[in-house]
Design goal:
Length: about 500
């Protein structure tokens, strides 16, 4: 069972949990759910491997559906002994495998490093006896999207979540907007109740999933000052705080360790092979789906999974951001965008290129491509430790303006509404958009850098540019020795791309 193998090792996990504990107040804990198993993707096309919650994986090393982890701020004396981390696993079988780097001894109970394992069937009892007890004053967690947990034949995970919510607090604040209204209720005076109730009622009308929050519903029924005081007293008992945990988590995950960088590089290696296989199919008359199939085949063959739907957008589809139908036939020449992301061992890699179909962009698109590529490379070069995020945005803005002056994208003022200029920076690792970058770059960050321009097929766009898109994305590592483009193995210069699409890579499926 490869999902029980942790490539980062026990020292990494112990260190990650310790960093969380040092940022938690006394008498608190973090509760994380691994997530449920999704049998198929939305289009019902292919089996979808289990996608573990990245927070759960980062702090436990496990990728198991319907599991729960509890990390205490200080060790608690439980029936197993002194326990710092408690994990609930959804199976009564023997887990005597190497997981999290620890040697599980083949039985549930206390393991090395103050870690204990229990069966998931004990979760309900634990909620009632421990987490709802006064010895735990605050609990940190994150919003749960129950509708995504579709484990075939079982509602067990949904039940676990509902028990968690109903046991710990009279109402669970799912997101930032709900929490903001909870804070208003906690301090409102009786005279202001009608106005606030009107605001909350209107908000619930647009948030069908939030209407199940008991305290918000009860507030709408308040008739007397005594009822309001009772409700406010109950609210003071709420222990869950999503935001503080989120910042705690980001603070330790933002900078990659050497062990994590090894896994990211492994994902990039597979990404490169899969990308080249897909790109080599970019010849006239081929179906967009052929590029997708080749890329998927190589990724899966090498033990990776897709981290997002593959984008293959040719002809006028290239001017449609995030087009995923992949249902058209490639024209005789021009651009085709290939956007691919894979995941292995929990870490993701992504790259985007605009390929010349059959090796030819045409004169006009060639100029647009080379101008966009030059701007993309200029932004990457500026991604160094200490540089401000705003400065990269300035480079992009000036570069797009210069391109427009040179190539004249619009024929009148209406054209601007049909043009999308994209400069996007994000952290990448366990997720494709992992965390906010902050104000400046730091050594140890892994970035995704995108430079794209989409010229829509609408009035005001210069005729020769209508329905043309160029998209480029690379992964960049900011290290002590300078900036490294991790995805440099996927060519971006026109000569290399031409050679790639004109020399199909033969696969076993051919």
């Amino acid at each position: 069972q490869s999902d029980l193998q942790d490539p980062l090792g026990s020292a990494f996990r112990a260190s990650a949990c310790t960093k969380v504990r040092t940022q938690l107040p006394a008498k608190s804990c973090v509760v994380l759910f691994s997530g449920g198993f999704i049998a198929q993707d939305d289009a019902q096309r292919f089996a979808q491997p289990f996608g573990c919650d990245p927070d759960f994986y980062y702090l436990t090393g496990l990728r198991i559906p319907n599991a729960v982890a509890v990390i205490f701020s200080e060790p608690k004396t439980l029936v197993e002994g002194s326990v710092g981390t408690l994990i609930f696993l959804p199976d009564k079988t023997d887990y005597g495998l190497v997981s999290m780097g620890y040697e599980y001894r083949g039985k549930f109970g206390l393991q090395e490093g103050n870690l204990a394992i229990r069966q998931a069937s004990q979760w309900r009892k634990f909620c009632m006896e421990i987490l709802a007890n006064e010895s735990v004053e605050k609990i940190y967690t994150k919003p749960m999207r129950l509708s995504t947990f579709l484990e075939p034949g079982s509602a067990g995970y949904q039940e676990n979540c509902s028990i968690f919510y109903s046991t710990l607090a009279p109402g669970f604040p799912f997101g930032q907007q709900a929490q903001a209204r909870f804070k208003k209720i906690a301090t409102v005076d009786f005279k202001s109740v009608p106005a606030l109730a009107q605001e909350i009622r209107a908000w619930i009308g647009y948030q069908a999933q939030e209407s199940c929050i008991p305290l918000l519903d009860r507030f709408l029924q308040v008739q007397t000052s005594e009822e309001l005081m009772t409700l406010q007293a109950e609210m003071r008992r709420i222990k869950i705080n999503i935001q503080e945990y989120t910042s705690t988590y980001w603070s330790q995950r933002m900078l990659k360790t050497e062990a994590e960088l090894v896994l990211i590089r492994k994902s990039v290696d597979i990404l490169e092979d899969a990308f080249k296989a897909g790109a080599s199919r970019a010849s006239a008359g081929k179906a967009e789906a052929r590029l997708q199939a080749a890329a998927e085949y190589v990724a899966l063959l090498n033990g990776a999974r897709l981290a997002m739907p593959v984008v293959v957008a040719s002809g006028k589809n290239s001017a449609r951001p995030n087009y995923v139908a992949n249902a058209a036939m490639l024209p005789t020449s021009g651009p085709v965008i290939l956007d691919l992301a894979v995941e292995i061992n929990g870490y993701k890699a992504r790259a985007t290129r605009t390929l010349p179909i059959g090796g030819s962009f045409g004169v006009d698109v060639k100029a647009l491509y080379e101008g966009t590529l030059a701007l993309h490379q200029k932004q990457i070069k500026a991604c160094i430790a200490g540089a401000s995020i705003a400065s990269i945005g300035g480079i992009a803005s000036a570069g797009f303006t210069e391109l427009d002056k040179t190539l004249i994208f619009t024929s009148n003022g209406l054209g601007a509404r049909h043009i999308i200029k994209v400069q996007f920076l994000t952290g990448i690792g366990l997720e494709l958009e992992e965390f906010p970058l902050g104000n400046t770059f730091q050594n140890g960050q892994v970035l995704s850098v995108e430079t794209s321009i989409y010229l829509g097929d609408g009035d005001g766009v210069t005729t020769k540019w209508r329905g043309t898109g160029i998209a480029l994305r690379d992964m960049v590592y900011i290290g002590a020795n300078g900036t490294e483009v991790l995805t440099k193995g996927i060519p971006s210069d026109l000569a290399s791309l031409t050679a790639l699409v004109q020399a199909p890579i033969r696969l076993q499926e051919d």
